[in-house]
Amino acid sequence: MADIVNLFEVEPGQTVRLHGNATAEVVSNPRDGVWLFVRYLTSPDDPDQVGAEDMVFAQDVLELVTD
Amino acid sequence: MAITFQPSAYSGLVDQDNGMVSREIFVNADIYAEEQERIFTRAWLFVGHESQVAKPGDFFVSSMGEESVILCRDRQGEIHVFLNSCMHRGMKVCRYDEGNTPIFTCPYHGWSFATDGALVGVPFYKDAYHEELDKSQWSLIRVPKMVNYKGGIWATWDPNAPDFLDYIGGFKTYLDILFDGWDGSEGGTEIIGGIEKWMVPSNWKFPAENFIGDRYHNISHRSVDLVGIGPSGQGRRDNSEREGAKSLDVSFPERGHGTVMFLRPEHAQPVPSYQNDPIVADYFYQCEIARKERQGQLWRILAGPGTIFPNMSFLPRQPRSIAVWHPRGPDQTEVWRWFLVDRSAPPEVKEFLRQYYIRYSGPAGLTEQDDMENWNYAHSASRGAMARRHHYNYQMGMGYAVTDFEDGGLKLDGTVLDTTKARAGEQNQRGFYSRWREFMAARDWDELATWRNGNGSAC
């Protein structure tokens, strides 16, 4: 099991793996430790999400894919 | 035993005819609780200054009565005032004094709100709420009325409150002196430095009435005058510009506002001030000339301390600042003090003023220390069972004010008490408590806007 991601340390441009096995690029980080602004790269459960920007909740961020 | 006060009881607590005010209104917890409902949810309150939220995303956490509010500028540049309380379980969504942010996130369950107040982030929105939660119905609570008047941000919780300038009435003359540039240019001020915040163990009305026109307590500051902290090396202010001036107490009792001021003689000329620094002295001298040219007769007004009902006080000249007396219980006031400078002033002038403000005002300022001591002990000595049986005396100058003041062609709005010879009066305080009584008794703004029935001066 991956370590809990410390959202304060996530930088724009990094890729995160999300709940539902989706991946997304971090667009910006409000640094509240709770939310990230991301753009979906893959989304097996909902392919229409790919390319869309959204806010993702900390508990939905499973791991950093790239550093 | 808790005492429940009916609206009719307030006329007995504020005895306008005899110039007496019951100590109960300062120390009674039930009256204090009523004030939160009847005054602080209905009056216009000072929230902050636009220069504190200059850029999109800037925020400043302020207070309206006891309640925390967020003053912020959204991504489109619009200024808003919101209740600082999450719509899910009420947690504060912002616990910083000020800063810049794209969103306000509640740390309890994670709901987050954009800087325009919209609910934008709901954890488990898809899985737990099944995307059925109507986010548009759960934005942060926004004040129904807000105004940016010359940089000052004011708000009220009452959608039926009159427009701000109607609320201010003829007192606008003195508010303009506070927010306009020293040369009279419109709204040319900005906040300098941080906001000083501290607690005073006293009811909020003590400082509010002190600033509305208490010339009588001058003796309290005698030690400061002896030290000579003023910007010309003497006293605590520059008093040479008051040479030959009339001393006037101006009250707008139908609105609760009041100020003390000095009225220069008709043919007065600018005099040197801020003599401790030649750059600063020249700046203010040139500003005075420009303002005299711009304002004509109104330039004669040397505005002093004042209070806008209920809890915003100010010093428009020396040291130029705003104070808000936030109620924190019947026995506690949280004081916030903002300091103003001309936006276009040279850095030397701003720094000179910053130093002067620090040594005059705030918890470490020599003058404000005197005041706090008075409010502290006056309050504590009024809480006892015996003390509460006796009213305060506000009889000074009763019956000597006029409503048609005119001097050398300059007519002044409001009720004016000439204190040039008397040196002090208490009509402004009587006006303040008269308005307090009206707020506590009135059902709504139809009753509170008494000037609409010809009582007092309309804007």
Keywords:
heterodimer; A: mainly beta; five-stranded antiparallel sheet; 5 strands; 0% helix; globular; B: 459 residues; Rieske Iron-sulfur Protein; Naphthalene 1,2-dioxygenase Alpha Subunit, Chain A, domain 1; 2 domains; nine-stranded antiparallel sheet; 12 helices
Could you explain the architecture of this structure?
- The complex is a heterodimer of chains A (67) and B (459).
- By secondary structure, chain A is an all-beta fold.
- Chain A has a single domain (7-64), classed as SH3 type barrels, CATH 2.30.30.
- Helices cover 0% and strands 40% of the residues of chain A.
- Chain A has a five-stranded antiparallel beta sheet, with no helix packed on it.
- In chain A, a hairpin with a 4-residue loop joins strand 1 (15-18) and strand 2 (23-28).
- Chain A is globular and about 30 Å long.
- With 459 residues, chain B is of the alpha+beta class.
- Chain B folds into two domains: 50-145, Rieske Iron-sulfur Protein, CATH 2.102.10.10; 162-453, Naphthalene 1,2-dioxygenase Alpha Subunit, Chain A, domain 1.
- In chain B, 24% of the residues lie in helices and 24% in strands.
- Chain B has twelve helices and 24 strands.
- In chain B, strands 13, 14, 15, 16, 17, 18, 19, 20 and 24 form a nine-stranded antiparallel beta sheet that branches. A four-stranded antiparallel beta sheet of chain B has the order 6-5-4-7, with no helix packed on it.
- In chain B, strand 11 (145-149) and strand 12 (152-156) form a beta hairpin.
- In chain B, helix 6 (205-213) packs across helix 11 (427-441).
- The longest helix of chain B has 18 residues, at 278-295.
- The radius of gyration of chain B is 23 Å and the shape is globular.
- The two termini of chain B are 44 Å apart.
- The model of chain B has no long low-confidence stretch (mean pLDDT 94).
- The A-B interface holds A 28, 30, 32, 34-35, 37, 55, 57-59 and B 101-103, 105, 107, 110, 112, 120-121, 123-124.
